[in-house]
Amino acid sequence: MCSPSTGMVEDFFSALFCPGRRGSHPRGASLVEGLQMARTFAHDPVMVDEVVALFETVPAGVVVDGTAGGGGHAAALLDAHRHLGVLALDRDAEAVTATRERLARFGRRAVVRRTTFDRMEQVVEAVAADPGAWPESPAPSPTVSGVLLDLGVSSPQLDRPERGFSYRVSAPLDMRMDSSGGPSAADLVNDASVDELSALFAANGEGRLARRIASAIVEARPVRTTGELARIVEQAVPAPARRRGHPARRVFQALRTAVNDELPQLSRTLPVALRILVPGGRMVVISYHSGEDRLVKAAFAEAAAGGCTCPPGLPCVCGARPEHELVFRGARRPSAAEVARNHRAQSARLRAIQRTSAA
User: Fold this and answer.
1) What are phi and psi of 85, to 5 degrees?
2) Domain co-membership, 204 together with 333
3) Contact of 111 with 89, CB cutoff 8 Å
4) Is 359 exposed, middle or buried (0-12, 13-18, 19+ CB in 10 A)?
5) Number of folded domains in the chain?
6) Shared domain check, 127 and 88
7) Which among 231, 259, 287 is the end of a domain?
8) By C-alpha distance, which of 327, 339, 271 is closest to 302?
9) What is the pTM of this model?
10) CA-to-CA distance for 322 and 317, rounded, in angstroms?
11) Whole-angstrom Cα distance, residue 62 to residue 156?
């Protein structure tokens, strides 16, 4: 998605349409210019130099970009690496249109499909089975040399009030990345029980305030706009807790991840993506909040251990044969210069793993 999740980094100055901002607009843009940028799905891909470098040594083939956004990472990869093609996926119709426009200059090296990334394997199989549909690269078809996931909500989605992701401007309470169907955040807020909402908020860091917030929402139903929801949450949270950032940020993050099935989709996708890589291929994931990063860290650690059940620190005697290895330990963070240029990058964590052998 090329930008972090709403709840982690949306501060008072993050939205293009923030009505309370004083002084000039960020980067000198006017409100009209900001609207035009959002309409064209313009954004600044996060940690793009690191992503390009990590795919430099993979074998010739195709990188599956499961979260294409506006095509920023994909374009950078295609510009830098002639041995790669890109199969770009995104569930957002506007993102798909923007990606197709941005990657048109690469011709057959780039193929774009509208879908969720948890259908990655099915899409790869379908594209590979269609003569002439597989992205061009020097490798035989199909060769998946890389998988890229840039998780979270994209800047254009966050900056357009009518998409309902931001608690800074009142708009219909939507939050669907694919706005063509499925329940919205308004459906969830108005239909879920106190227990269900409380559990959802608690899982996203609200702790002891989760039930208090959930009860306030249920009592105020129907809730139709982001502004209404933000006010309900703010009034339900004690004054001391309001000093730790906007009180609605975790609630909005919890609703967004639930509406878009984000964590379950990620859990389903990680083992599939690791399996479809060819030896020497790499998977790179950029996450923006702890829930996402925990899933990625655990999946990569399990893959690198090959399912070993031996006690940590002792030689393996269980016969496990790892097929993957971590490219580096831990997670990399964006540089200070990038955070200064794009404050939404500050919570990004990048992890990478490489396939070492075939199954």
Assistant:
1) -110, 175
2) no
3) no
4) exposed
5) 2
6) yes
7) 259
8) 271
9) 0.85
10) 13
11) 27
